[in-house]
Each structure stands twice: as C-alpha cells, then as structure tokens.
Amino acid sequence: MFESRGDVFLIAGILFFVVAFLVMGVLPWAIYAGEGEQTVEEIAAQGILHEFVELRESFPEEFKRYYGEVSEASFAEALRLGREVYVGEGCWHCHSQQIRPVSNEDVRWGPVSHAREYLNELQRPVLLGSRRVGPDLVREGALRSNDWHLAHFYKPSSVVPVSVMPDYKWFFDEEGVPNKRGMAIVTYMQWMGSWLDEYPYFLGGGPPRHGNLESAGPDSTSAGASP
Predict the structure, then answer these.
(1) What span, in angstroms and rounded, lies between the C-alpha atoms of 113 and 216?
(2) Of the candidates 146, 152, 157, the residue with the CA atom closest to the CA atom of residue 186
(3) Chain segment 6-25, per-residue pLDDT in tens
(4) Which terminal Cβ of the chain has fewer Cβ within 10 Å, N or C?
C-alpha cells in the first residue's frame, strides 16, 4: 500500500495533526460555543478586590484624581486599563498566563488552567504566552502585596536581584507615586486568579473551601473580594 517508510510517517503525521486539531481546537470550541463572554463590568460587579481599596488608602489624593471613589465602575476601568498596559508594554513576551498539566507546573504556580477561565473580555485575545523569561502570572493575585508590585515595577532588581526585567518608572510620577497606569497594572496583576475557589491559597495551606476547579472561572465569586 505504501511505497516507502517515509509514506507511512507522512500519513501518520497528517493523522496526528488532524486528531490534535480536533481535540485541541474543535472540541473546546464545541463545548463552550454557547457560553457568553463576560464583560469587565460583570467581573467588577462580583466584588471589588481589597488590593484596589488599599491603593485608595495608600494614595488617596492620586487615586481620587485618577479613579474618583472606589466603585464597581472605577474597578472595571482600572482592570481594563491594566490589561491594555500589560499588552502595550509587551509583558506577554516574557510571561505566560496558562498553567499546563505538565512538568509539575501546578506545584510551582497553582491549579492547572481550564478553558472556562478565559471566557471574558479581559482574555480577548487570550494571552497564553509562548515562553517564560519570567514566571507565569495567571495565579499572581494576592501572592504579593501592592507595595511589592510597585517596587518591582519601579526597579525589579530591588526585590528580585537576578531579574532581567526593565524598570517601568513611567508608571510613577516624579515623587515615585504610582500614576493611573501604575495603579491599573497593579490592579490587573492582583486580579489574576481571583476567580478560583483556591484564591489566594493557590499552593495550598489555606482553609478548606467548597467547590472544585472544574467549575471555576471568572464568573465565580472571588474569595478575596468585598461586595
């Protein structure tokens, strides 16, 4: 039937490609085709992260100038701008937003990612990333304080001596106070993974919680949010 071993490998390669396309592309689309995409406003309506409130408490004058008062609308504005900053600054070149079920990634960064997590406006297009010069960030929420993130953006090596990440001092004013973009990117970082039942104990050690990862997604109420 086949004239050479190369023909066998060719046919096998095509079959493997077709199967991979069906399993990794068509099947997920078919499962979630009827699911609606969640808007940023709907995400904000589920609860305002306490880290966003802390920004108001730490920088009251600047926060009021940029975002007014703490509200669902201002939280949604910060999330949307934070994602724009993340994309615009090319953060996705060095950081992924997907925990894969391989190489003990769940041990290093938290629960494996599921398709349901990406059914929202802040994941359009998805920012899965293709390499990790820095760590995965999809479980970054509440792992570190606002102060840590601000210091990291201002001078990364001040908190991670071996970091190759550049300084982002344009996220701050002349006095070192975060500007609107700086507050937005910190809010976006703190939002990462806040939709999971495991939040903020992605690596274990927290109190027992109800629910399971299979049903988790941005439409789940954040454990770290306040109404």
Answers:
(1) 10
(2) 146
(3) 778 888 899 999 999 999 88
(4) N
